[in-house]
């Protein structure tokens, strides 16, 4: 093996402890993601734009499932932090600038998702219990009014699409393109590229063809596969 090939294929040996944490995070993320999808299926979907009162009624009927979804999604968001740093150290020798951008995109997504998406859902689930327990229309009106703001945030499709799908997809795409040059297998890189492209399609596509929103389903499945492949590779880096 030539020195150039070794430099392209080698990862940072000083970060093996982080690779171990990243490997565990990736595999647990994939499991948590699948469990979240199952809870979504059990709870049933709620069409966007139905309004605060309809959302409170729905969440009151499926509160346990949605507390489970919220807990799993917050947990998986947090797992992306050590995983992102593990990928950065594994791939920075190939393209440090690209990996800095990729890591920044993923961390930005984590911050926005925790601050807006799941904080809004936590507020709505809590309000839904109070709404269900209300004994008069006046009391219910108070809780509906309180739910209007978080509902408006969650029902803004372009806002949600950009920061929950497009921003992390940029980070995942950059990471996948760097993976093509070494350390990870090309199969892992191509799965990441396919996931990122389908994520962009699910955000931009509905502007032209509404059914393209369903591309996010395939993208989500590829995401779970991608993290399993990443976790397996990081585990092997620890053993090298």
Short synopsis of the structure:
The chain has 9 helices and no strands. It has 240 residues and is an all-alpha fold.
Task: Break the fold down into its secondary structure elements and pairings.
Layout: H1 3-9, H2 16-43, H3 52-61, H4 63-91, H5 96-133, H6 137-154, H7 157-179, H8 186-204, H9 215-239
Helix pairs in contact: 2-4, 2-9, 3-5, 3-6, 4-5, 5-6, 5-7, 7-8, 8-9
What does it look like?
The structure is a single chain. This protein has 240 residues and is mainly alpha-helical. It has one domain (12-239). Helices cover 82% and strands 0% of the residues. Helix 8 (186-204) packs antiparallel against helix 9. The longest helix is centred in the middle third of the chain and has 38 residues, at 96-133. The two termini are 16 Å apart.
Coarse structural class: mainly alpha
Globular, elongated, flat, extended or rod-shaped: what is the shape? elongated
Q: What share of the residues lie within helices? A: over 70%
| Structure summary, number of beta strands | 0
Top keywords for this entry?
single chain; 240 residues
């Amino acid at each position: 093996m030539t020195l150039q090939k070794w430099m392209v294929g080698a990862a940072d040996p000083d970060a093996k402890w982080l690779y171990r944490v990243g490997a565990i995070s990736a595999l647990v993320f994939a499991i948590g993601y699948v469990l979240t999808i199952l809870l979504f299926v059990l709870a049933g979907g709620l069409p966007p734009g139905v309004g605060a009162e309809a959302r409170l009624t729905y969440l009151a009927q499926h509160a346990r499932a949605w507390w489970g979804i919220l807990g799993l999604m917050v947990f998986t968001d947090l797992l992306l932090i050590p995983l992102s740093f593990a990928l950065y150290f594994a791939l920075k020798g190939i393209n440090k600038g690209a990996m800095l951008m990729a890591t920044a995109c993923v961390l930005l997504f984590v911050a926005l998702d925790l601050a807006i998406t799941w904080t809004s859902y936590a507020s709505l689930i809590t309000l839904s219990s109070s709404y269900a327990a209300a004994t008069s229309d006046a009391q219910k009106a108070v809780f509906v009014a309180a739910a209007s703001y978080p509902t408006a945030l969650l029902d803004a499709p372009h806002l949600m699409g950009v920061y929950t799908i497009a921003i992390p997809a940029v980070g995942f795409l950059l990471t996948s393109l760097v993976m093509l040059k070494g350390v990870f297998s090309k199969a892992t890189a191509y799965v990441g590229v396919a996931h990122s492209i389908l994520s962009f399609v699910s955000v931009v596509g509905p502007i032209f063809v509404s059914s393209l929103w369903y591309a996010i389903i395939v993208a989500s499945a590829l995401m779970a596969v991608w993290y399993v492949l990443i976790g397996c590779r990081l585990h092997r880096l620890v053993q090298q």
